[in-house]
Amino acid sequence: MPKVIACYKWVVDEADIKINADQSIDISKAKWKISDYDKNAIEAAIRAAQAISGTAAALTFGAANAKPSLKDALSRGPEEAYWVNSDLAAGADGHVTAQVLAAAVAKIGDVSLVICAEGASDTYARQTAPRLGAILDWPTVTSVSKLTLDSDNLIAERKLDDCLETVKVKLPAVVAVLPEINAAPLPGLKAVLAAAKKPVTEFTADALGITALTAKNKVRAVQAYVTVRKNIVFAEGDAAQKVKDLAASLKKEGVL
Q: What span, in angstroms and rounded, lies between the C-alpha atoms of 55 and 216?
């Protein structure tokens, strides 16, 4: 039975991020969650699996702290989950992540479709799906807002800057979906309880042959941004003149 795999990332909940006085970031007390956009990808995988009479599975690449994510992912509908447990995840970029996921997909086997979110909610780098498709040498479609499938092909509607594009590719394939692909329903109590009984397969870096991977990009520091307001006040003239002055100022700043 063909598999549809939803890739997801375990990320820091941005609501718990603290900004220190020196603009440094404090995540020491932050909770973690499945990336918000990946929740849509998981739901898209479930629907895709139903369309081709296959099974949906979740796949994540993370260190030991990602273990709690498995139950959450499974409660959202996939029938099984795969976890690449490696400390490489801590400093991974798109290059490393795609290499790891590709090795896992090859290990799993009989995969007809891999669905990623367009980007993760922490970095939104938009690198994983294109790189993964290139490594697997599968057709890859990004910015997907609508998806239909049969046993051999997928038709995807892509939302571009100035138009919609419809493409058709043969399976197996990789797609990156936008949040509007579908709603991501909250799992109910029954689904949460059932998730504990679903199978989980754990891969090690050694088992996948990925121990020597090195990130192409390294994060040297993370600092909060500071918003500097000009506090320009348009006090002269009537309402029409104030609007005119505001529009002129925005045009000068390149906003309009």
A: 34
| CATH of range 3-208; options 3.40.50.10860, 3.40.50.300, 3.30.470.10, 3.40.50.620 | 3.40.50.620
Nearest 5°: the CA angle 219, 9, 218 is: 10
> In sequence order, which residues have a C-beta less than 8 Å from that of residue 239 and are 6 or more positions away?
none
pLDDT tens profile 89-121: 988 999 999 999 999 999 999 999 999 999 999
Domain-by-domain residue ranges, the chain? 3-208, 226-256
Mean per-residue pLDDT, 204-231: 84
- Residue 82 CA to residue 249 CA, distance in Å, equals 54
How far is 166 from 187, CA to CA, in rounded Å? Answer: 32
| Beta strands in 48-197, from DSSP E residues, in sequence order | 55-62, 80-85, 111-117, 140-149, 153-159, 164-170, 173-177
Q: Rounded CA gap, 229 and 30, in Å?
A: 29
